[in-house]
Structures are given as structure tokens and as C-alpha cells.
Amino acid sequence: MAPRPEEPRRDATGSRRGSSRAAGNRGGEPREPGVGGISDARSYTPRGRTVRESRDERAGFARGTGREDRAARESGLPGRSEREERTAAARRTTGTDQRRNPRGGRSADPFRPALQVLDGGRTGAGRTGRRAAPATRTTVIRTVDPAGTPGSEEPPPPRRRTPRPASAARRPVRKPRRAPLLADSRRRLRLGTVLTLAMFAVIGIRLVALQAVEAPAYAGGGVADRLRTVDLPAPRGAIYDRDGKPLAHSVEARYVFADPTRVKDIPATARALSPLLGIPASELTERMAPRTREDGRESQFEYLARGVDIATARKIMALELPGIGAHRDERREVPGGDLAANLIGFTSPDMVGLEGLEARYDDLLDGEDGKRVFEIGKGDLNAPIPGGYRETTEAQPGSSLTLTTDRDLQYRTQEILSDRMAKVSGSTGAAIVIEIPSGEILAQASHPTYNAAAPDKSKPTDREDAATSFVVDPGSVHKAITFGAALQEGVITPDTAFPVENSILKGDTWFSDTHKAHGQRMSLPGMMAYSSNVGTIKIADQLGKEKLYEYQRRFGLGQRTEVGMPGEAPGRLLPPSEWSDSSYGSVPIGHSVDATPLQMAAVYATIANNGTWVQPRLVKETIDPNGKRTPTKPPATRKVLSPENAAALRSILEAVTTVEDATGLTAAIPGYRVAGKTGTGWRLVDGKKQPGEVASFIGMAPAENPRYVIAVFAHTPGGGGGAIAGPAFRDMMGFTLRHYKVPPTGEKRPEFTVYPR
């Protein structure tokens, strides 16, 4: 389309074309050019074009049309019908002259603003002609009369409006609809901008949340899939003897396992592993057999062996057996085998203490495992990622224990006890060696014993510590308590002597002596040497049951020593309120009393320590992982006898190993003075007396200045315990004195009078 000229086109009369008619109004009055009325608005065609026609134009058009029609008829072609003429007349719009305002202003035509908008905003300006209609529409051919051209003097006659039919009603003028808000480009731009900014804001907020707030969770979730954790076992603390020699310690080992889902040939694999692990092939086959766990899944891990030597594990891995692997493990080693096994105890394969000191001090000995966490790749890159996540928590080894025991003395004590017990088919035996004045236990042996490195091959009764769990009726070794209490309370003196009958009646029970005195006056050393029941009962009658019970408690009976062994028995004493008439005869001589060998050994240690009871001690110090040594708290002590009375009692006890035909001659040690006492009692299980007897001997040496106390107890179901206790004591004490280089006694043995005049 050609650009519209800025200056409106004008006709000959000076009026703007397309905005007013050339003729006057209906009344025939000529109108000023450029002024139009409502007809001008109606003559505006839908294509925005105003057509002004003069009478000549209409006449020329009619003539032309008539000529065309006649030519068409003459040529035999159809001409225009009346209806077509009306249609063409309706499509043609005629312009009218704009009626001037009387004041010379704008016309009051209400459609003028709309015409101005449609006309490009020019006031009073007519729209320029539009291009010809498309060829597809019926084209109205107009011929312009020369009179309508510029220079014509005669104005064209006014056009008559075609009257509307009376029946045709005027259509109501519809108010134009408001365009939707979105039709405004500026609104669309603003809305699009807001939506875009909102979208970017949501994305930005989400990115910030992912990168800042939720980043650790997502990062952790991703890293977790690439992390591998390797446990760093913490070595269990060791147990040493008093000289730092290991009694039990842990060494690095390997455990061998099988994944039943990957083992291809179970019988062949079992045969290959059997000689290396020392386990029958049938047992290995059973362990490798596929099985279902409690959660319904197939088991992918089964132990084949624990604590395997590293060299053996390497040989197994060199076989490259499918489904067989090895991993770091810990094995508890007991260098002495059964050395102090009942004392030390043992652990489970998982290094948990189950018996003895291993169980009692498990929290101290057990370390805190560490771990190493690192990133690995996948597939062929299944290896630590350089520079990747890596965190190591170091393992904290357990603390160690230093015992008061002497490994060499422990070994010799166990050996002597086992040999003596084997000669008489003894069932249970115990031996304790206590150092004076510290109260430290230098050796604590039990029979039977076991190999702590292979505890599963022993019976539960073999693993008991007889010194603390072996409850006995002590018998005559209890008489030292009765004599000591009487000396301390002043009931008797070292020179006391009185007639002793062969028997005495208490309640309905007769108590007799094995060595008959026949009513003769007998000294206190003589009563002790021949273990007189009648003389001891008569002394207890003067002492009284309340005092005797009091001294039993002060000497440590009826209560645990708290030496540190699990399962220690407290023993039991008969309160004075529960005494029967026969109790006045049984209790003073060591019957109706429950005690352990360790409790009775502590009684004689009190006598050897000048009358001061010292709590027996088995653990000397602890050693933390850094090597710092911490001594155990000092043992509890209490005064029981005066030093003078303790010395007098030691002298009375020395008669047992020196007086002719005394009960303890087999316990005498050449070159040393020995004080002690023999005893014969019963073994009690749940308060019931067991068949056989319990023979015992408890003594000290050198008697003039005791350094060590040794107690030996032996339960012999068939009797003959006396042949065990005395000789076993002699051998143990002799080795102890030589081991610690105690010089022989320089003084002569005292001379005792059994029956003074």
C-alpha cells in the first residue's frame, strides 16, 4: 500500500475529499464544502472510504450502466437486474456536505469522534481512498462525469435517500465491547515480566536451599554410597605377674570365614582347609553349608576359625578358594597354658572376659575399637579415592593389670599341689601363698586346672578358683581363732594349763580327742600340738559365744575378702542367737562354720603380721595405654590381736611341727622354724556336707619373724588328706624361702612341755 499523503486531497470546490458531499442538504440549500452531517457518517463504507457523487456522476453512472445493460442485452448477455441495482446502490455510500455550526465551530455530529479515530486522528479530514476491492468480490464500476471534475461550475443536485420500508425497524446501536486486558501489549509485557521474574525467583530460592540448607543431607547421601568402613580393633590389655612377665596378652591374628553363597565346591574346599586350620573336614563342611538367617535372607558370612596365625591365613588366601576370606582378628595368648588359669580366666573369641580376672576386670582390660572411613570407587575403581573423604578414629587399647603373683612361684605351687592330689585321687585342692606384711598373694593355685588357651575342652568345675569358691568346714585350723581371742581377752595366758578329759558333752553330742590326755593337765602348746577338741571347747566356754563370734568377724570370716575374683563365696558364721547346745562344742573347733581357703589363710596372715588383719591383695597396679602405672588403693587393715599375744600364739602354733607325735610334723622344714596348724573338716555344697574329708595345713615361716603364709586344702572323697596337706606345705614353703633367698633360722627351736606338773 502506498503511503498516505499528509495533506488531504481537495476537490474543485475546495472541500476535502472523503469528508463531505459536493451538494446541499435535503432542503436543497447548498452546504459549505467540508461540512457534513449524519449522512456523511453513514456514507462511510466498511472499508473506510467516502464516496462523493454528484448528480452528473450518478447520471453518468446511470447512463453508463444503461449503456452497459443495453450492450449486454444486445449481445445476448444478461444485464443487471433491479435487485442488483439496489445492492450496488446500497454498497455505494454517498458523502454529504458537513453542516457548519452556526458559530463556525465543529459539527455536533455524535459520530465525529469515531470518524476522527478511524481517520487517523485528523479533525475534519476525510480518509483517503482505499485500494480497489479484491477481484473475488463484485466490483462496482463508477464513471465520473466531467462536471464533477475541478472546474465544473454547476453543482450536482442533492442525492435523494432511498426510503426504508415501513416494516424495517431500526437496528439498535450496540455498544462496542471492551477489549480484553490482555489485548494491551503493555499489560502483556508487564505480566510476562512478572511471571518470568517469579519463575527465576522460585528457581533461585530452590538453588539456594539445595546449595546451602539441604546440601549436607544430599552430599552425605551421595558420599554414603561410596564410603567403606574398616574396623580398627583395640588390643585388649595384658595381665602381668609382679615382675612384668606376661601371664595373658593379645596378639594380632586372622579369622577365616566363608560366604556359603559363593563357595563352589564345599567338600573340596573343606578338604583343602582342614589341614591348615586343624579342623575336621566334616565340621568345616557343616559350617559352609548354605543356611537361611532369621530375616529370611541367605547367610553370606560364617566363621570357620578364629585367632588363626597370620602365616596360616596367608597360606589359605594363596589357595584362592572361592567364597573363602580372612580378616584381622585378635587372639588371646596364655604363654603358660594352665599357669594360673583358674586365677586369670579366659575370654570369648570376641575378646570378652568370661572367667577369672578377665571377667572381673573386663571393662578395664577391654579397649575401645576405632574405625577408618574412606571413599572408594565402583567396579574396577574399587580403591580409596585420592583426596576423597577420609576419617580415622584411632583405637584405644585397653589398660593392663599387674598382679602380685610370682610366675615362677605360681608354677611350682601348682605343680606340687597337682602331684600330691594325684597320689590320693583328690577331687579338689587349693593352695595360697601370702606375703607378710603386705598381704599380697604370691601364688594361688587350684586343682583341677585347665588350659586357658583352650577353655572349651575343659569342664566348668575345672575352671573354678578353689581358693575363693571352695567352701569348707575348716575344722581344727579354726582353733587358732579360739586361742587368739582367749589370749586377747585375758581368759588364758601362754602359761595356762588345765586338766583335759578324753571327751566332753555339749547338748546331745560327745566331743572327743584323738590323742587321749586322760584328765592330765595339759599346756596350751600341748593342746595345739595334739589338736585337743576338749581343751579348746573348755577355753571357749570361758570366752563366751558372743566374744568368739566377734573375733570370728574380726579375723575376716563370714565376709568376702574382695580380692578381686568373681564368684567369691562369703562363707557363713553361726550367730550366737542361733547356737544350739551342741554349738558350744562344734563352733570352737571349726565346725558349723563355712569358710574359704583364702579366708583361713588371711586369719593366719593376721597372726604372722603381729595381730593386724590385712586384706589379701591380688592386683598390684594398673597400666594405662600410655604406660602410666597406677597402684591399687591400699588394702583395708584392722587390729585384731596385740603384737605380744600374736607372738605368743605363733609360739603355741610352732609346737605343732616340733612336739613329738604332733599332728604337723610332716610340715616341718629343715633349717627353718615353722608355725602352723593341721585341720580336718568337710566340704560343703549348698550347705550340705559332701562325702570324704577336707585335710588342711596352714603355716608360716620363719616362725620367729614370718615372711610368708601358705595354706593348703585338699578334699579327698576316699580319705587320706593328711598325707597331702602337710607335705605339700613343706615343699611349697621350702621353695618359697629359697626362691626369695630367706636365710635359715639362726635360733634353736623352743622346747615345749605338753603335760606340766
Automatic annotation (TrEMBL):
It comes from the Bacteria. GO terms for biological process: cell wall organization. Residues 429-733 form the Penicillin-binding protein transpeptidase domain. Residues 1-14, 50-73 have a biased composition (Basic and acidic residues). InterPro entries: Beta-lactam/transpept, Beta-lactam/transpept-like, PBP_dimer, PBP_dimer_sf, PCN-bd_Tpept. GO terms for cellular component: plasma membrane. Residues 1-181, 384-403, 561-581 are annotated as: Disordered. It holds the Pfam family PBP_dimer. Residues 15-24 have a biased composition (Low complexity). The lineage of its organism: Bacteria, Bacillati, Actinomycetota, Actinomycetes, Micromonosporales. Belongs to the transpeptidase family. This is Peptidoglycan synthetase FtsI. SUPFAM superfamilies: beta-lactamase/transpeptidase-like (SSF56601), Penicillin binding protein dimerisation domain (SSF56519).
